[in-house]
Amino acid sequence: MESKFDGDIFDDPRMIAARNRVILALENSPAPYTKRFRAKLNGLRQCGDYPVAFILSQGRVTRVLRNQCGNRGCPVCDSLRAARIRRGLGEVVAERMKAGARFSLITLTMPHRRGDMAQKLVCHLTAALRKFQQTEGFKQNVRSWARGIEVPWSAATGFHPHAHYIVEAKLWPKDEIKRLWIDCMTRAGGPAVLPNGAHVKGVKDAGKGLMEAVGYPFKVMDLNTIPFLELVELLYATRNRRLVSVCRTWSHRIRHLLEDRAAESAGLDLADGTDWLSFAEVRLRARTGDRAALRLMFEAAELLERGAGTRALAQGLRLLIKGEMGSCAPNAGRNSAGGRQREY
Ligand SMILES: [Zn+2]
Q1: Distance from the alpha carbon of residue 68 to the mean position of ligand 1, in angstroms
Q2: Is 204 helix (H, G, I), strand (E, B) or coil?
Q3: 221-227: which pairs have CB atoms within 8 A and are 24 or more residues apart?
Q4: C-alpha 328 to ligand 1 mean position (Å)
Q5: Are 82 and 244 in contact (CB under 8 A)?
Q6: CA-CA distance, 37 to 21, in Å (whole number)?
Q7: Which one, 116, 215, 224, 265, has least CB within 10 Å?
Q8: What are phi and psi of 186, to 5 degrees?
């Protein structure tokens, strides 16, 4: 992130501003107001509003993890998701580089003008990309890949949808890639792509290549500066579309790596040295009168009180503690802060 804000990403003023604009834009979306859409809006409004886990160091709470709504367009969740994917991909790419694999960064663009509708451009782009990945050239040369679609906007040229790939490929000639891309866009019914519509370059450093390939679908700056009607249009054009995808081989490997790590951290207890505890579990223990669990909740509330952005969260936690201490009924206050914590 280019942000200089050093607190929790949820409390970054630019993130909050961007999220509020996204919510307002979605409320004005031409999309039908379905149950799913309502749930998405509610999720966005409550993103980061309650704790889901505590990070402990030497038995003391050092960080409080908060709920993530996981919605596309949520600036916080999009950033965290991109970071998670990059972390997983980084390990896989590093593994393959060590084994001598070659990587390239392919950028595919399309011509566009100021007044072009985002919906039309995105449709052409995704249809052409689908065709591109179905070509013999792609199938024969690309062993594995990850792809990110980005739709930045500028006052001069309007929407600029394009795709970045990081691919593990043999020596796939640049001219062939360019020719294929021009052909695929034509077959998808899109505009005539110029020869400079496809860029290819070798990747020497996995970190750098990944930053470019798996960026944020929408830049936070864009969300804050793009005119409101264009924002409505952008969110509508990209709804239900997968903007970051990873090939099957890599996503299996990433899942495997993540599972290994989850297994390592499983079986943690409320003892000293613990490093992760789910909030639901702490709460359950607090409810049964476990003093250690109550102490952790107090510590978390104290920690949250120190940040200007998290005072409301601390207040909620204090109310909860009060409720738990006063409640003798086994089911009192059930279900209010279960929360999902999404992992890639
Ligand atoms: Zn979110």
Answers
A1: 5
A2: coil
A3: 221/14, 222/152, 222/153, 223/18, 223/21, 223/22, 223/75, 224/14, 224/17, 224/18, 224/21, 226/153
A4: 34
A5: yes
A6: 16
A7: 265
A8: -65, -45
**pLDDT, tens digit, for every residue of 5-48?**
667 888 888 899 999 999 999 999 888 888 988 999 999 999 99
Q: For residue range 140-152, what is the model confidence (pLDDT) as tens digits?
A: 999 999 998 989 8
Q: Which residues pair with 104 in a beta bridge?
A: 167, 202
pLDDT tens string 57-115: 888 898 899 999 988 889 899 888 888 888 888 888 888 888 989 988 999 999 999 98
Q: Is 65 helix (H, G, I), strand (E, B) or coil?
A: strand
**From the CA of 137, how far away is ligand 1's center (Å)?**
38
Q: How many residues does the chain have?
A: 344
| Cα 286 to ligand 1 centre (Å) | 28
Residue type, 342: R
Rounded distance from Cα 177 to ligand 1 centre (Å): 37
Task: Sheet containing 60-66: give its strands across.
Answer: 60-66, 51-57, 277-278
What's the rounded Cα separation, in Å, for the pair 108 and 163?
5
Q: What is the edge-to-edge ordering of all strands in the sheet holding 162-169? A: 198-203, 103-109, 162-169, 142-150, 244-246
**Alpha-carbon dihedral sign for residues 266, 267, 270, 273:** negative
Is the separation of the CB atoms in 112 and 152 below 8 Å?
A: no
Name the CA radius of gyration of the chain, rounded: 23
Task: Give the residue among 119, 245, 107 at the shortest CA–CA distance from 164.
Answer: 107
DSSP H helices, the chain, are 13-27, 35-46, 75-98, 118-134, 136-141, 174-187, 206-213, 220-225, 228-237, 248-265, 279-287, 291-306, 311-326
Burial 10-31 (b: 16+ CB within 10 A, else e): bbbebbeebbebbbebbeebee
